[in-house]
Design a protein that fits this description.
Elements (H helix, E strand, L loop, with lengths): L4 H9 L3 H5 L6 E3 L2 E4 L11 E4 L4 E4 L5 E3 H9 L3 H11 L11 H24 L5 H9 L4 H6 L3 E3 L5 H8 L4 H6 L3 E4 L2 E4 L4 E7 L5 E8 L8 E3 L15 H4 L6 E5 L2 H9 L5 E3 L7 H8 L5 E4 L5 H16 L3 E4 L8 H8 L1 H9 L2 E2 H9 L8 H16 L4 H15 L3 H28 L10 H4 L1 H16 L4 H7 L7 H15 L15 H11 L8 H20 L7 H15 L1
Parallel strand pairs: 12-13, 12-14, 14-15
Antiparallel strand pairs: 1-2, 2-3, 3-4, 4-5, 6-9, 7-8, 9-10, 10-11, 15-16
Length: 581
């Protein structure tokens, strides 16, 4: 049974979308709406709009939208029921007797399973069998308080140690394999993590969603091994220790490469440190850090070539997300953990406070390996510098670094400035050509409603009917009476059927009532449809839209089979089969 509509209405009233959104993004008031740079995709110009009158939002850049429940679903990566619970707790409301669907039950089971596994690994670390794991982390200087705070554990060098323990708690082999605690090979199941120091990975609400394991023996397949992805764990969306770092009083995050770096830094007092999970920083993670309220991100990567490459990628991603980035340059140590051990926490604090801007870091890299005392060196440097400078969006920053590049090469600033202007013009022309090419290219990549590409006229008519009915629910009978065969595209048909059910049960149409049936990206499309210019959808327009769909179905019935595609023939055969029933 669905949640009561009265409860959902009260939930929305007690969670104003503007107040909720301000916890995640910086909103600017413009007329009757609020705008911000979208937290769900990277952009330079704000295109995400919030509408207080309808308690809804919509991004014109990526198409995400919906009500306050949808917003929490997207930004907290929760399912429908979890999002409702989140908002109910925020508003001090009690949940009614709820419908539990399969996905929610699965997520709850995974949280419980991971918590039990984490407790088992932790106990193993403090047992005689976990001595090798304990020796390793105490040798790295971690205190018992830190070990317990991060819930560190040990996976025994045994193929079935965790397996038998979890089975004793009532978890089936298939549950454990689907939860990434067991591995499968030729229908045999065994512990995925063996002879490893275990790092539980927490989500922002403190649930264990996955594990990372560090090998304690040379020659093992991988030094670090992470859980496979599950319904509660998507590697690209998680950051290690963010559940702690989000509460730090520091006005910056420190982004590291490894678990031990992060833990050592927290122990030394740098409690805003986080790490990606064995991969390069992703756009989602960059935006996630950007909406946590800190002023900037300090990149603390290893000083080798791979670390420099990762830093450059991070700089670009944070720039796209509108976040200021700085880069930590360490001399005498390869990573933060080693630096703190060699020189102490205060020396590292000074390093953080004196870290240079991302642009400084990239400008210094341009000259690496070049002899600026030679003509060839200057020429190579200027070619790289002009391309880099043309990509700096802020005009004042660009002017400052044009002057620096000119000084480095020993030539007038005006020469560099002119070359940068030419490069910017070329880049703009290239972008305009790409945009034109995109506009004239057939738009056949609509993942939400793939049928829209083949049937643009019919799809537009369907949107018109949905929008009109949403604002004129009393007209459902009229629509059904005149619409002979229904909708042509699958997604719009689902929306129309859902809207019809809402109207038939006597409810007032509201965006929130679609949440239970549709995913977050689908909610954005529905929001766009029903928020269209209603003045264009009058009674006369409705008749035209219905006629478009009726004409479509009539033409299909009259179309010779030889002119039809295989898919069309199959679809028509199914329709005729159902008609005979």
């Amino acid at each position: 049974m669905a949640l009561p509509e009265e409860f959902l209405r009260e939930l929305r009233e007690n969670n104003d979308i503007i107040d909720v959104a301000r916890s995640y993004v910086e909103l600017k008031h413009t007329g009757n709406t609020f705008v911000c740079r979208c937290p769900f995709h990277s952009e330079g110009t704000p295109s995400c709009h919030f509408y207080p009158a309808t308690n809804s939002f919509y991004c014109f850049g990526c198409g995400v939208g919906g009500d306050v429940v949808t917003f929490i679903r997207q930004i907290e990566n929760l399912d429908y029921i979890e999002s409702v619970k989140f908002l109910a707790q925020r508003a001090n409301m009690s949940m009614p007797e709820e419908r539990t669907d399969g996905r929610e039950a699965q997520r709850r089971r995974l949280y419980e399973m991971n918590r039990a596994a984490g407790k088992f690994f932790h106990q193993q670390l403090f047992s005689p069998e976990g001595q090798s794991g304990m020796s390793y982390i105490t040798g790295r200087g971690l205190t018992e308080h830190t070990i317990r705070r991060f819930g560190l554990g040990y996976a025994a060098d045994d193929y079935h140690k965790l397996h038998m323990y979890m089975r004793g708690l009532g978890y089936s082999d298939f549950e454990l394999a689907d939860g990434a605690l067991l591995a499968r090979n030729n229908n045999k199941m065994y512990d995925k993590f063996r002879n490893r120091l275990m790092f539980p990975i927490f989500d922002l609400r403190g649930n264990i969603v996955a594990f990372g394991g560090r090998a304690l023996q040379d020659g093992m397949p991988a030094k670090y091994l992470n859980s496979d992805e599950t319904p509660v764990f998507q590697k690209r969306e998680m950051l290690f220790a963010l559940n702690y770092a989000k509460n730090s009083k520091a006005d910056y995050f420190i982004l590291c490469e490894g678990y031990m770096d992060v833990i050592s830094m927290h122990q030394a007092g740098f409690d805003s440190a986080v790490a990606s999970l064995g991969t390069a920083i992703t756009p989602y993670q960059a935006r996630l850090l950007g909406r946590m309220g800190k002023k900037e991100v300090i990149l603390s990567y290893d000083s080798d070539a791979a670390g420099q490459k990762a830093a450059s990628r991070g700089i670009n991603l944070f720039a796209e997300a509108g976040i200021k980035a700085r880069v930590l340059k360490m001399d005498g140590a390869k990573d933060p953990d080693e630096f703190i051990k060699k020189f102490g926490a205060e020396a590292f604090r000074h390093l953080v406070e004196s870290s240079g801007s991302a642009i400084d870091y990239e400008m210094d890299k341009l000259a690496q390996g070049l002899d600026l005392m030679t003509e060839d060196g200057k020429s190579a440097y200027l070619k790289k510098a002009v391309g880099f400078l043309a990509g700096i969006s802020d005009s004042l920053d660009r002017e400052v670094y044009i002057s620096r590049a000119a000084r480095n090469a020993g030539i007038p600033s005006e020469a560099v400035r002119s070359a940068v202007a030419v490069q910017m013009k070329r880049s703009k022309s290239r972008a305009e050509r790409d945009l034109t090419r995109e506009l004239i290219r057939p738009r056949n990549s609509d993942k939400i409603n793939p049928d829209a590409y083949k049937l643009p006229r019919e799809e537009k008519a369907e949107r018109g009917i949905i929008c009109w009915l949403y604002h004129n629910p009393e007209g459902l009978g009229r629509v059904k009476e005149h619409l002979q065969k229904g909708f042509a595209t699958d997604f719009n048909r689902r929306v129309f059927d859902s809207l019809s059910n809402i109207v038939e049960r006597g409810a007032v149409p509201d965006i929130s009532l679609f949440n239970e049936e549709f995913e977050g990206n689908e909610m954005g499309r529905i929001t766009a449809i029903v928020s269209d210019d209603i003045s264009a959808y009058n009674a006369d327009a409705l008749e035209d839209y219905i006629n478009v769909l009726n004409d479509y179905h009539r033409s299909r019935e009259q179309k010779p089979a030889s002119d039809m595609s295989i898919d069309e023939i199959k679809k028509l055969a199914q329709e005729l089969k159902e008609k005979k029933k």
